[in-house]
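Final report, closing paragraph on structural work. Over the funding period we assembled a curated collection of sequence-structure pairs, and we close with a single example.
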Amino acid sequence: MKRILLTLALLLLTTQLQAEELKQLLNLPYGDHPRQVLDFYPAKSDKPTPVVFYIHGGGWRGGDKKTNPKAFLDKGISVVAINYRYVQNGVEQKVEPPVKAPLSDAARALQFVRSKASEWNLDKERIGATGGSAGACSSLWLAFHDDLADPKSDDPIARESTRLYCAAVNGAQVSLDPKELREWMPNYKYGAHAFGLPNLESVIENRESLMPWIKEYSPIESVSKDDPPIALFYGGEVPVVGASPKDPTHSGIMGVKLAERLEEADVDVVLVTPGTEKPKYKNSTEYLIDRLTN
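Its predicted structure, as stored:
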């Protein structure tokens, strides 16, 4: 009986230690700002695991990294969920343009995760980004942007790659260019806050001077043939380019235009919108599990 009780006590202690260890993997700082923290959910595996890199939505002005990693953990995929500076934090810190704050934070967090690959038992090559709305836009920006690694940096984290293995996103904005957005959807109004401006009309008025920023921070502008496989999921209405959808901010019209650009560059792309018949993947979770484990 004493032996059984001792065994049970040891099991309880082990469970408590594991729980405490898991707590220590929450709100890990990857920078100095209070918003620059992430949660790491490790999958149990004897070999390095793939990673889902989750970037929350909220217009780059709100939202939080809270997520349920179970579907991925059950498949042996670890999960990282990040917080990042909002655009208003960028304004406070005089970051130009303000959208550089959340996007550069996403890149830095990804580099931080790669720097922990050995310690956290991660396959640093198999990292797939995901998110909704602004988090989806950030994921696509990472997917298409040239590698931001600095091989000569004294900072070992900055030497890590920002390239992705794949990305699967929901309701993504794909451009910050008001001209093309209004051509696709005449009623489009979103995105001025990325540049610290009050409305899209202000962006249109200043478009010429803003073009360097528009090109730098619009995912569609960085598409090239070496980009990773992409899956785009949209709800709402059947997308019709030139129409004025009820929710232009998350319309599949943007997915249609990005998919065209990706196909022109010969990048593997899956587009699922209302009206898509018999899609291979019902959602971003299914896509990521398939891509990261096969």
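The two ends are 48 Å apart (CA to CA). DSSP finds eleven helices and eight strands in the chain. We thank the funder for supporting this effort.
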